Amino acid sequence: MDVPLIIFIVALVFLLLAIKFGSKKANYDERQELIRGKGFKYGFLAMMLVDALLAVAVRKVQLAPQLLVLTPLFIGLWIFSIYVLWNSAYFAINQKRRKYLGWLFLLYGLLDGAQSITDLITASGSLRVWNPDVGLLMLAIYCVSIGGLMIYCIHRDQDERD
Question: Distance (Å, rounded) from C-alpha 82 to C-alpha 28?
Fold first, then answer.
């Protein structure tokens, strides 16, 4: 087994146990619910726009069907997450802002990104045939950006409270 896979499995088990035993039902205030609603709207609009652009691009360049499906979903989720995190509506009122979750996202993203980039360099394929490392690279980009932003926003919000 690969070392990054073992680290991912251990981190996932740790995360699931932390969620199971350490969380309550999330209660968002009205401001957070409005921000989350706007985030859903922006994410969905971005997803539709990317899907339309890919529908036009597929007429000119042949792309793998998996790439056509995953890219709009990835972009929509990414925009929603960034918008909600930036506006401090990601964590509910009754949740603690756990820094380890951000560090876990960041660490996993870096490990996954390093593995998928090295695999993509050695494979040197095209976008016409699906390579699972492209999906892993998308996941790595998401985890690194969200983990880093989560850590930054937790520090920013703590500085505002102090």
Answer: 17
